[in-house]
């Protein structure tokens, strides 16, 4: 092998396009040794950053994007008509991606209030025969969705799900009210009050707080005609959440440093 002409300063600063050449002239060097080095670098001779797992990213919380469609603004008295959830997972490169969507059309609970203005806004007709044919009662629908979310949570070694939403506390209030109505507390995978809100994230990233405008700023297609469907809004909120997180790698670098410091000090 020939000695490289680049200086140590050029190598450390990444200013040279010439690969760093090993000066070991041993005839016993094998191609497998070189391959092993290549697999542990980013192609420029620098060590790759470790990929964070979901369990390390949000303090053992699994983010789950949630959206509800309702017949009013009072979680205690107004009907919950649609619920959609999408867990956020990570690919092999450590990028955030939406998982499989879970959703339900719900029958209004007994005695529920139905505000006509809210129904006109969402376009939902609880008495539509086609809707009634697929609508579920709250308790079995909640427990079906919760069971699926718990499976994803366990796959990612997380302890709890954390609700992600656009105006997240609105969604959480209706979810918690339904959990209480159906005696489903022991089935609930979500943290009772903590949330991650894409309104705040969008305001920081784009100066926008409206979902449609934030999606447009992020380059995400958004259809006004499909909006106000719980499933569609959840899909778009999930895309937006992933886009924002994936656009700020410095957050991951800070977490890597913080996790390393905590491991050394014994802090969890």
The count of β-strands is 6
Low-confidence stretches: 1-42
Gross CATH architecture:
2-Layer Sandwich
- Structurally, the number of domains stands at 1
By DSSP (H or I, 4+ residues per run), the number of helices equals 11
Computed CA radius of gyration, to the nearest angstrom: 25 Å
* Strand residues, percent: 15-25%
Overall residue-averaged pLDDT value: 84
Helix-strand sequence: HHHEEEEHHHEHEHHHH
Specify the biggest β-sheet.
6 strands, mixed
CATH superfamily: Ribonuclease H-like superfamily/Ribonuclease H
**What is the CATH topology?**
Nucleotidyltransferase, domain 5
Based on helices, strands and strand pairing, what is the structural class?
A: alpha/beta
CATH top-level class:
Alpha Beta
Map the helices and strands.
Layout lengths: L7 H6 L17 H9 L14 H4 L3 E10 L9 E11 L5 E3 L3 E4 L10 H7 L6 H6 L3 H18 L4 E6 L2 H14 L8 E8 H9 L4 H7 L12 H17 L2 H17 L3
Parallel strand pairs: 1-5, 5-6
Antiparallel strand pairs: 1-2, 2-3, 2-4
Structural descriptors:
single chain; 268 residues; alpha/beta; Nucleotidyltransferase, domain 5; six-stranded mixed β-sheet; 11 helices; 6 strands; globular; disordered N terminus
Provide a descriptive summary of the structure in words.
With 268 residues, this protein is an alpha/beta fold. It has a single domain, classed as 2-Layer Sandwich (Nucleotidyltransferase, domain 5). 43% of the residues lie in helices and 16% in strands. It contains 11 helices and 6 strands. Strands 1, 2, 3, 4, 5 and 6 form a 6-stranded mixed β-sheet that branches. The longest helix is centred in the middle third of the chain and has 18 residues, at 138-155.
